[in-house]
Amino acid sequence: MRAAPVVASEEKATHQLSTLRRFLQxxxxxxxxxPIALTLVLIGAATQAIGPFLLGWSIDHLxxxxxxxxxxxxxxxxxxxxxxxxWAIRGQILRVGWIMQRLLAQLRQDIFTKIQSLPLSFFDRSxxxxxxxxxxxxxxxxxxxxxxxxxxxxxxxxxxxxxIIAMLSINLQLGLLSNLVVPLMIFTTSxxxxxxxxxxxxxxxxxxxxxxxxxxxxxSVREAQAFNRVQMNIEEFEILNAANRDANVQAVAITxxxxxxxxxxxxxxxxxxxxxxxxxxxxxxxxxxxxxxxLLYVQQFFRPIQILSxxxxxxxxxxxxxxxxxxxxxxxxxxxxxxxxxxxPPIQGEVTFENVxxxxxxxxxxxxxxxxxxxxxxxxxxxGPTGSGKTxxxxxILRFYDVSSGAVKIDGVDVRKVTQASLRRQIGIVLQxxxxxxxxxxxxxxxGVPYATQADIEAAAQMxxxxxxxxxxxxxxxxxxxxxxxxxxxxxxxxISIARAVLINPRILILDEATSSIDTRTEALVQTxxxxxxxxxxxxxxxxxxxxxxxxxxxxxxxxxQIVEQGTHTELIQQQGVYANLYALQxxxxxxxxx
Length: 595
Fold this sequence. Notes:
- This is ABC transporter.
- This protein is an alpha/beta fold.
- The chain has helices at about 5-25, 35-65, 70-115, 120-125, 130-145, 150-170, 170-180, 180-220, 220-225, 230-280, 290-330, 390-395, 420-425, 440-445, 455-465, 465-470, 490-505, 520-535, 570-575, 580-595, and strands at about 350-360, 365-375, 380-385, 405-410, 415, 425-430, 440, 480, 510, 540, 555-560, 560-565.
- β1 (about 350-360) and β2 (about 365-375) form a beta hairpin.
- α2 runs parallel beside α6 (about 150-170), α3 runs antiparallel to α5 (about 130-145) and α5 packs antiparallel against α11.
């Protein structure tokens, strides 16, 4: 019955070794720098190991003989040796730090690249705060553990080897006695490390949850105040914060108990060397110099062991962070280009859905046997209640997800047979709540075409009816915007997002109620800009206000993942079906508002 914990422990150790091995693979680009660093480490270790031997030798052969001149020469030699060692240690810290900081920078880059490349289905089940915690907090923990102490750890390993060799060479009996406590140290370190590993893994999880909560509450502070939820948010954050605090306190408690245990073993070894060394000296089996050298060596011997043991215990936090990082890096690309994927030819604008079935979860379908055919240049309106599948149709056109069955084709080409980049660069999208980024107005317009000229940017802005507004800003197109486009209004942000879509000159355009939530005057500018943008382009318009789609070439009424009605506005009104009822309800509500 007791075998299971041993097996579990072995599996954890194997997993941890695998994690470390994978982390060390990041050292491959620095193969030329590593031998230089190791050479400096060896020099530093050698200078530390030779000192006690020379001091002990000087007691027996210089001080005991009254040779002051020789003693001064030896002290000068020691000064040179230790000075050279200090130079080597400084060099190893700089060299190893140089390597580790570049390694960690590459690790951050890999995480960010992975996050940017993952399909939307991953983000449907992941929290932004937790991902930020892996990129920032977990990597920072690895940096604190490896980036700042790896050079010291390597130096202590070689120092320990040199000290062991020196001790056994000077006096075999005292050397073996000094090493009797090493198994106890290994057992103590392993025991504390096993406890610490679980606690530090908990700390990494709780800091991820805390980051998620922080990101959500900062982003929604306006809503929290408007709905009088500030106190509840504070209380919820306090609970998560307390959980993270308790997890860290427990981890620190283990570390705090570990160091005195190692100090006790160190003291025990010194007492043993002093007692047995004194006995050997009295009996003439050893000299005072030899015992003095051993006492110095024992102090040096346990210092690297203590540092290495402490490092190993604290490294559990870094291993917990690395585990979370590598789990993210190993996240499969569920939406990949086919090995033989071709570049999407210039799009003409024909879009077809052939008996498309799709579900975000395999057991819960959102679209059920959808068929549609949009001809080049047509405006297709998607109407229906929230959750009916309108946005899902748009996502499949952009290939943010792959269909469960059936096919989505553009100009007769299955979107799964072309590269995602070549497909999306020919499709423009204007959402109801477009995101602008910190940067200049020009950079936001050129978001999809980073190398666009100033003339192209201004032409797109003029077509989007936003050029005059931009030139009225203090710095014009170089005006810096804050997070999410602050301090622009919703309508101004919408016009800039339209200019962004104009600049990429898409053949297929997607609009998600682009005129909602803006004032009447700005709506007129947006409507004019959209009318220009729609010319000679195939467009899909998600419409909540049916008055905006009366000119659509096709209106698709979607309910529960199926197209229940299809036709022009006039045709659907004449059918007196679902669409006609929706239109009558909205028209009646609008008339009541006017009255």
